[in-house]
Design goal:
It contains three helices and eight strands, in the order βαβαβββαβββ. By secondary structure, the chain is of the alpha/beta class. Helix 1 crosses helix 2. The radius of gyration is 15 Å and the shape is globular. The model has no long low-confidence stretch (mean pLDDT 92).
Amino acid sequence: MSITKEYVSWQQIESMVAQLAQAAQTQSFDVMLAVTRGGLVPAGMIAYHLGIRNILVAAVQFYSGVGQRADTPSFLQFPADPFISGQTVLIVDDIWDSGKTIAAVKSRVLAAGGTPVTAVLHYKPKASLFPNQLPEYYAEETDAWIVYPWEPESER
């Protein structure tokens, strides 16, 4: 099986961020929750467009060892419930592949009493394990392996 890699430029990222921000500006958000690591860069850029200053971080890991993917996520860092309770939370990640990461973050936001809204640069509907869910905001659909400009050369 051949994997198609799509290398995304900074110019493309800026365009996708502007597109997401324009779509999301019709809604009001109390706080942004950036999913590490991939969501940090787009979250910061979207925050500037939407004027969001309150940015929290969710560090999620699905690996239990080298090359061993766990079924459930480990939250290395997640905001305390009072920071999310009663808040409309814009959850930002770079890509919705299987959807497991963002679904886990979304569940934690709901459990804390927040209202989650998801935004990603790329959405992979064919890879998603959640056929009845999709991100509220996304810039592009793809089946390709996406390589972002902030990724180190060793991962390209």
